[in-house]
Amino acid sequence: MRKSIPLVAVVSLIVLWSLLPIYWSLRTSLLPKIELTTTPLKYIPMPLSLENYQNLLGIGTRGNDVWIPLKNSLINSIVTSTGTTLLVLLLSVLAGYAFSRFAFKGKNLLLGTILVTIALPAYSVMIPLYRIIIRLGLLDTWVGITLIFTSAFAPLGVWLMKVAFDTIPIELEEAAMVDGASPAKTLLTILPLVVPGMVAVATLTFLSAWSQFVIPLVFSPQNASPITVLITQFVGRTSIDYGLMSAAGIIAIIPPLLVVMFLSKYLVDGLMRGAIKN
Amino acid sequence: MKKKKSLVLIITVLVLATLCFTGCGNNDKQTDSPEAGAKKFSGTTLNVLLPPWYEFSPAMLDDFTKETGIKVDLQIMDWDPCLDKIVTSNAAGVAPADVTVMNWDWVGKFGAAGWCEPLNNHFDDDFFEDITTRSLFKYKDQYIAIPIYNDFRVTYINKDYFKKAGIERMPTTPDELMQDAITIKEKGVCEYPLLVPFTATGATTTPWYLLTKAYGGELLSETNEPLFASKDSAGYKAMEFLIKGLKDYQVIDPASIGWKGTDVVDNFKAGQGAIDIAGWAGNVSLYTNPKESKIVDSVQVIKVPGQNGKSRTYGLQEGLSVPAKSKNKEAAVEFIRWLNTPENVEKLFIDKGIFPNHHSTIVKLANEGKLPGGQTMVEVLPTIESLFPQGVPEWNMEFETETFTTMNQMAKGAMTLDQGMNHLADTVKKLNQSKP
Amino acid sequence: MKINRTLLPYILIAPLFILLVLLTFYPLLLTIFNSLQSLNLGRPDDIRFVGLANYIELMTDPAVLNAMRNSVQYFILSVSIEILGGIVIALSLRNKFRGRAIILGIVILPWALPPVVNSIVWKWIYDPSYGLLNDVLIKLGMIDHFHVWLGDPHFSLVWVALVHIWKMMPLISIIMLAQLQTIPAELYEAARIDGANSLQSFRHITLPLLKPALIIALTLGTVSAFHLFDEVYVLTGTSLDTRSIMVQDYLIAFRELKYSMGMALSLIITIVILALTWFYNQLGKEARV
């Protein structure tokens, strides 16, 4: 590659920009509490202290006090984020396909109405939504929080999937239709071609759901409470346990990181396949 | 019909997907089968919403369940989220929990909104008589919460730095305190001896409110008119003390513009400062803990220095209230009553540092030498005043936000002292007019 | 030719639409209705219909105008940097090289940080006494004394915006990258044969074909900039220099308890965002000609 030297420089900068703040947080989590307010600053966590991680994982001085809520909240986060991702994928593939491939009455109006909701701040519907969720008996449940997340993130998914379907040549489906394939089969024929789009939707949805704070705080405060809500509880009345919060933050990054690494492989594969085909 | 079917379909798909992904994950909310017996509220599950410093031990809550048959579901949330949750639920016409935390400065607003069950009839006069700080939670002759946390402010001194600067006696007036800070700075002992926060967050107001009392005045009149506008008022002098300390005498670190209340504590315990002027009484145990603090042997607690040597301090009490929409009010009252038994009040103090409000407990702990800070705390405790003796104004939350935002602007130099004080006085006048 | 089955598209959209009706449109209608009332949670008995009075009062309130000005600055800063950075990142990562998958993972990482965690991370970078930024800049000789980054009346907004940009840039990058992948390599091949240099093929192939992604990216950048809340509130509280319109809305609705007023402001924010995104779409249509 003739452009490789500037490329290496740019990529290194990107990596530094992305990782440095996270490294700094890792350092904070690995320093003994008293070293955080010591100058000169320690760039490397020496003396190393695993106390925060031991406490989080239930093998430290605090016993299971932190581990049990941490474990529960991680399960809650994983379930609601995964459930939301699957549901958003399903709904947005169906709707995206409809908006991309069909001409029907009220199409623009429907699409417009769905996309407009992306602009709504969470606060604008929170209190009426709270009443609805209580009436449905879904307060503080996985189902309730997953449905709310889905209603919030699916519109973007629809848009992304519509764009993805738009870029696929229609000839492929026409061929399938001529062969007498059902609509479902036709959709399945071209689905592999929109995998990069689906990966983008899945990644965005999972990470958006994972990051939510205000919505779960109100709608799943306890039994279905996620890791983001738990982290803010590590505060004392007049002191904040930054070490423990940073350590919990580092642990909270691991599941989305795994998802990203797993999915980015498909993002790369999608590209490779495109390149080979061409 | 079709809509309903689709909804059922969505939920089914979701539930299946959720189950697939968790396998054995369980999230059951089932309560233990109610204990047999004639306990009045046996089998009730009580939802309790509190900030992290009330994380009662499971053993303690088990005791309550054994005694009454009531199961406690304790929900812990950080302070701001707690308030958000309480407001959101009440706004939707639902109880946020059966027992919630209540701050002294929410009383005006929550009382007017009718969100809290009046508790007068649930407890007898003797009960209230023993609680020294009960009036803080009074809204129109009704107690809408029972005090639980007796938060008040004292001044912490790093006596090593005072000694190094050649200061032998402890300051007894605000002006002496400032003079000492200047001396400590001039002698090169410590560059920024006075620690106060100046971010636009809650804790920033405390030093001003406290110093206004220390200078012998009040913030508002009986009719909630501002008393701090004229230059010879206590409120003005208090703010001048803080802003001059930062800008003119430079005994306050410019970094304090980025400090919250917790940063002051962190800096003081790291030995980066000589005076924590509006320090929380409970911090005495933190400052003397060698695992947390570098000033274990040099910290000393004194009464907040006041004009003419007369120390004053005010309470920032937290209480427990029962939301008006709660369906378990009687059981909630039982829980509050149980927390207020002499044994539990003492236990909460020893285990969790929750300062008692009960006069009898304070006397007992003092006699047994269990109050940290010794004689100073004992002397201060009975003198705690209300910030607003006339009752907390309904618009206090707006005033508080405007106050710390304005103090932050003055500290940054975006407003002068006079501009800031005039702005705050105007704010109070406007808030008074907006009342119906 | 499009497939012509009348009912099929409606059936495909129905599940999503029903969910939205229940959880978004119905609450939204209630909110619009409430925004025309005088509901103050602190005075539950005093509910009157006031028409557009809340909207008019908001648009003349100096605190609201100040917060709106701040949010417009967040919007301009974030969107321009995110789009430029996003394009650079997407272009650098479009070609295959060893370790690309790992680097892609690293690039997306900041987006994985919940804002709650993000704010703690940056606290220890901006901290005036023990922060990384001061320490590094002093060591590099770029500053001579510690700065209170978040206490600077002129630049604190930029520092808060940077935290937001750091989190949002990965999202913009992945959207760009997903779109870049759909551009067939043969187009570039053809352009090269016609003697186009890389700048020309970027201008004439990449940019036009990137347009759908660009519009999505602009929209998301705009929405998130106007919705900015957690980072501002955790890092600088209610400071006038950094207070975003969402923080102002929160103060009105959940601290002052002026519910109708707060709902009206949240709808004004929605309208501002919609106006901007409509503008992007018009721009996109014009560019096609």
Walk me through the structure.
The complex is a heterotrimer of chains A (278), B (436) and C (289). With 278 residues, chain A is mainly alpha-helical. Chain A contains twelve helices and no strands. Chain A has one domain (70-277): Orthogonal Bundle (MetI-like fold). Helices cover 71% and strands 0% of the residues of chain A. In chain A, helix 3 packs antiparallel against helix 9 (195-211), helix 6 (142-166) packs antiparallel against helix 9 and helix 7 packs antiparallel against helix 8 (183-190). Chain A is globular and about 70 Å long. Chain A starts with a helix and ends with a helix. Helix content of chain B is 43%, strand content 12%. Chain B contains 17 helices and 13 strands. The termini of chain B are far apart. Mean pLDDT of chain B is 86; it is low at 14-38. In chain C, helix 5 (115-126) packs parallel to helix 10 and helix 9 (198-226) runs antiparallel to helix 12. The two termini of chain C are 24 Å apart. Chains in contact: A-B, A-C, B-C. The interface between B and C is large, with 42 and 34 residues.
Could you give a quick summary of the protein structure above?
The complex is a heterotrimer of chains A (278), B (436) and C (289). Chain B has 436 residues and is an alpha/beta fold.
Outline the secondary-structure elements.
The complex is a heterotrimer of chains A (278), B (436) and C (289).
Chain A: H1 4-30, H2 51-56, H3 67-101, H4 107-116, H5 122-135, H6 142-166, H7 171-178, H8 183-190, H9 195-211, H10 214-219, H11 227-231, H12 242-277
Helix pairs in contact in A: 1-12, 3-6, 3-9, 6-9, 7-8, 9-12
Chain B: H1 2-22, E1 45-50, H2 58-68, E2 71-76, H3 79-91, E3 99-103, H4 107-113, H5 125-130, E4 138-139, E5 142-143, E6 146-149, E7 153-158, H6 159-164, H7 174-186, E8 194-195, H8 205-214, H9 234-247, H10 261-269, E9 275-280, H11 283-287, E10 299-302, E11 313-314, E12 318-321, H12 329-339, H13 342-352, H14 359-367, H15 374-380, E13 384-385, H16 396-412, H17 417-433
Parallel strand pairs in B: 1-2, 1-3, 8-9, 11-13
Antiparallel strand pairs in B: 3-12, 4-5, 6-12, 7-9, 7-10
Chain C: H1 8-35, H2 53-59, H3 62-94, H4 100-112, H5 115-126, H6 132-139, H7 156-181, H8 185-193, H9 198-226, H10 230-236, H11 245-255, H12 259-288
Helix pairs in contact in C: 1-12, 3-7, 3-9, 3-11, 4-7, 5-10, 7-9, 9-12, 11-12
